[in-house]
Specification:
single chain, mainly alpha, 0% strand
């Protein structure tokens, strides 16, 4: 029905807003890390990637939680 389609559209809009928020958050964190790494020349690239990875895993976990709550 039209109502079901409208509901789905609204859910998708909400979800994409959340995804945009997460994207903004990721970009912000990457900028912060790059600033930190710029200060600390001693940081190894591996450590940087590890930090990115931990952040990414955490964000995926948050997205999954948000989707589970909506479902």
């Amino acid at each position: 029905t039209h109502e079901d389609i409208a509901k789905k559209m609204n859910q998708n809009k909400k979800r994409s807003k959340k995804v945009d928020k997460f994207k903004d958050y990721i970009n912000k964190r990457i900028k912060e890390y790059e600033a930190e790494i710029g200060k600390k020349e001693v940081w190894s690239p591996h450590l940087t990637y590890l930090v990115y990875l931990v952040d990414l895993v955490y964000l995926v976990y948050l997205v999954c939680l948000a989707n589970m709550r909506e479902a």
